[in-house]
């Protein structure tokens, strides 16, 4: 459903993505692992449209969307949970979720808000509290919930485990692992390679703006090059 | 005591207009990070368009609506033609663009209208009311009531409608707003429109008291800016309190010290705020859990 061909992106004169090709098929969880500064976040931002692309193509359901504005891509079914949560701090939890449905015109918005509360019960307790005063883990759940409120077909997740306690990491990642059952395909970016590979079908390894390895998640988890560089074994 | 009350009334009246200008600054600053020095020109347009439309025989309520519409169009044009094409430019560049727009609007107004002072008849005719030995014009009460109504409406809009919340969201985190499908260009454009309408309403209400001409906007913008700084840039409540305080200081300064220094007081306020509390009365130091 998503086919990225030779994608390039730059900050000013410095190119940070040197031609990346990635494919995500419907119903998969695909992860992109790599160390800090490899270009993972830039890549996701280029997919969602908040980072300009300087070359290559992003084909989404057969059409090139690399020139489509960011706010229109979410209408096409691509949602991103940005790195570092980025919730709307002054607004309440409930308002954050409702704004996730900003572009929707259907009648199921209220029901979907309740679904998110069922998925993350702690958010229901805090529904009227400003998002900025939630803990890091709760903000992460809210960021995921807000992205799900756009009714995405593809969810781009940027470092959902960053800065969270191990117990919360498990909770968030197990919610992610359930997403394909709800008809949502996932592209996951993680530094925590062990956790990411455990819930993925396939994975790509990104290093300084290039894909250096790709394959089935299970085989990558046993690949020496991956275990040495990213699993700390 | 009567004298004190008299100064307080006139200070609050003019302060209410500063508060509306400051509120306009706040809205645009929050949504886009731009300090719009053409804010005073919205006030000028409100007054001048109403004056010239009523002179052409348009009934007052219609003329006022027309004036608001003209200011809104100018605000939207300012954003789409001058601010949006320069996105990514530094804050100083954007400020200079708004100063340029303000000079342009003043120049156009002096050609389209004229360079003389104009008044409007009071909207509520009648004698001044006596309160505690001081007199207060019905029009002053209208200015205060009108400003209060604008503030309440704006508060309801921001806290009760999804569009208002989308504005807050855009101000809080523009990237995240784009990621949930909010067209942030459009939202910032809407904040320019709302700011322009607020400024124009202030201009319409105050013209029967203070008169208007093509360049009243300059001083109003500077005083509204001092008010916004005093309240804490970006804080709507601060803008309102700041506006009223600057108006009161100005009236008391003119009354008890010398009216020659009336306009200097707002600038003294800016200097004091910058030296003593750069975040203003209600400004936050920007601490947040992440």
Write the layout of secondary structure elements.
The complex is a heterodimer of chains A (233) and B (290).
Chain A: E1 2-11, E2 14-24, E3 29-33, H1 40-48, E4 55-60, E5 63-64, H2 70-73, E6 78-81, H3 93-100, H4 109-119, H5 121-125, H6 136-148, E7 154-158, H7 166-178, E8 185-190, H8 193-199, E9 202-207, E10 210-216, H9 217-221, H10 224-230
Parallel strand pairs in A: 3-8, 3-9, 6-7, 7-8
Antiparallel strand pairs in A: 1-2, 1-4, 4-5, 9-10
Helix pairs in contact in A: 3-6
Chain B: H1 2-32, H2 39-55, H3 60-83, H4 91-112, E1 129-131, E2 134-136, H5 138-160, H6 162-172, H7 174-179, H8 184-210, H9 217-231, H10 236-257, H11 262-276
Antiparallel strand pairs in B: 1-2
Provide an overview of this structure:
- The complex is a heterodimer of chains A (233) and B (290).
- By secondary structure, chain A is an alpha/beta fold.
- Chain A contains 10 helices and 10 strands.
- In chain A, the strands form 2 sheets. Chain A has a 6-stranded mixed sheet, with helices on both faces. A 4-stranded antiparallel sheet of chain A has the order 2-1-4-5, with helices on one face.
- In chain A, helix 3 runs parallel beside helix 6.
- The termini of chain A are far apart.
- Chain B has one domain: ABC transporter involved in vitamin B12 uptake, BtuC.
- Chain B is built from 11 helices and 2 strands, in the order H-H-H-H-E-E-H-H-H-H-H-H-H.
- Chain B has a two-stranded antiparallel sheet.
- In chain B, helix 1 crosses helix 9.
């Amino acid at each position: 459903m998503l086919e990225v061909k030779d994608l390039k992106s730059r900050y000013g004169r410095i190119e940070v993505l040197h031609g990346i090709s990635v494919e995500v098929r419907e119903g998969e969880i695909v992860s992109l692992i790599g160390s800090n500064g490899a270009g993972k976040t830039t890549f996701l931002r280029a997919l969602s449209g908040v980072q300009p692309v300087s070359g290559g193509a992003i084909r989404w359901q057969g059409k090139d969307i690399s020139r489509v504005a960011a706010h229109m891509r979410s209408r096409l079914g691509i949602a991103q949970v940005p790195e570092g949560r980025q919730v709307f701090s002054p607004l309440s939890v409930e308002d954050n979720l409702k704004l996730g449905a900003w572009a929707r015109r259907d009648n199921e918005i209220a029901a979907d808000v309740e679904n998110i509360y069922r998925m993350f019960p702690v958010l229901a307790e805090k529904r009227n509290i400003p998002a900025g005063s939630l803990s890091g883990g709760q903000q992460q759940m809210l960021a995921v919930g807000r992205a799900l409120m756009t009714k995405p077909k593809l969810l781009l997740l940027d470092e959902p485990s960053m800065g969270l306690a191990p117990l919360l990491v498990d909770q968030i990642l197990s919610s992610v692992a359930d997403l394909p059952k709800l008809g949502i395909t996932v592209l996951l970016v993680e530094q925590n390679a062990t956790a990411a590979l455990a819930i993925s079908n396939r994975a790509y390894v990104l290093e300084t703006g290039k894909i250096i390895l790709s394959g089935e998640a299970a085989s990558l988890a046993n690949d020496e090059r991956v275990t040495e560089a990213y699993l700390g074994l | 005591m009567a004298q004190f009350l008299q100064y307080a009334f006139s200070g609050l009246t003019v302060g209410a207009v500063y508060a509306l200008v400051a509120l306009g600054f706040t809205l645009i600053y929050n949504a886009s990070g731009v300090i719009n020095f053409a804010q005073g020109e919205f006030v000028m347009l409100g007054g001048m368009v109403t004056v010239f439309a009523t002179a052409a025989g348009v009934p007052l309520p219609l003329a006022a609506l027309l004036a608001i519409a003209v200011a809104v169009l100018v605000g939207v044009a300012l954003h789409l033609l001058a601010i949006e094409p320069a996105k990514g430019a530094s804050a100083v560049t954007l400020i200079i663009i708004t100063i340029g727009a303000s000079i342009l609007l003043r120049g156009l107004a002096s050609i389209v209208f004229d360079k003389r002072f104009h008044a409007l008849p009071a909207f509520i005719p009648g004698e001044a009311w006596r309160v505690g030995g001081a007199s207060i014009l019905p029009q002053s009460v209208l200015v205060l009531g009108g400003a209060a109504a604008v503030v309440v409406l704006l508060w309801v809009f921001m806290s009760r409608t999804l569009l208002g919340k989308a504005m807050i969201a855009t101000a809080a985190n523009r990237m995240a707003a784009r990621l949930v499908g909010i067209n942030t260009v459009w939202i910032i454009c809407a904040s320019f429109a709302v700011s322009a309408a607020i400024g124009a309403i202030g201009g319409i209400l105050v013209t029967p008291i203070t008169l208007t001409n093509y360049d009243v906007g300059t001083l109003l913008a500077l005083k509204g800016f001092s008010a916004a700084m005093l309240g804490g840039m970006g804080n709507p409540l601060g803008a309102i309190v700041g506006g009223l305080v600057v108006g009161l200081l100005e009236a008391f300064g003119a009354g008890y010290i010398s009216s020659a220094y009336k306009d200097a007081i707002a600038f003294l306020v800016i200097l004091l705020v910058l030296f003593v509390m750069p975040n203003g009365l209600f400004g936050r130091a920007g601490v947040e859990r992440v």
